[in-house]
Here is the input.
Amino acid sequence: MRCELPDAAATEQLGAQLAASVTPAVVYLVGDLGAGKTTLVRGLIHALDYSGKVRSPTYTLVESYACEPVPVFHLDLYRLADAEELEWLGLRDLLAERALLVIEWPERGSGVLPPADLTVYMDYSGSGRVARLQSSSGAGTRLLQALESV
Here is the structure.
């Protein structure tokens, strides 16, 4: 699935649309710095009725949000020096929860991270962005089907 995102509001709206069918899953966000990954997550989390500030986890590496129907863990692995550091971050505990894990820079956790249910590739497109969404599991397919029906 391909989505044209002319501005930040459209990127947040795509996140909100994903939230409509959120389920425990692992979502990878792939794209250059400034491609809109955190903006998409902000739209998703706010659509799940979280009213607080949604921060980029660039320095904290993990931000957690008590959302319904599932908690959301937003990971940014950009500053990760070694994939084995995910153990120190408590990845095993996060995976044991029925939660949505949204992971920026997943290639930095290669070999340690579980496979993605859904991968969102974010790229620049003129003055906007484009998102390509690819399912890799039943959970990912359900998320895509819900988006297609919007």
User: Anything to note?
Assistant: The chain has a mean pLDDT of 90. Strands lie at 2-5, 25-31, 62-65, 72-76, 100-104, 118-125, 128-135. The radius of gyration is 14 Å.
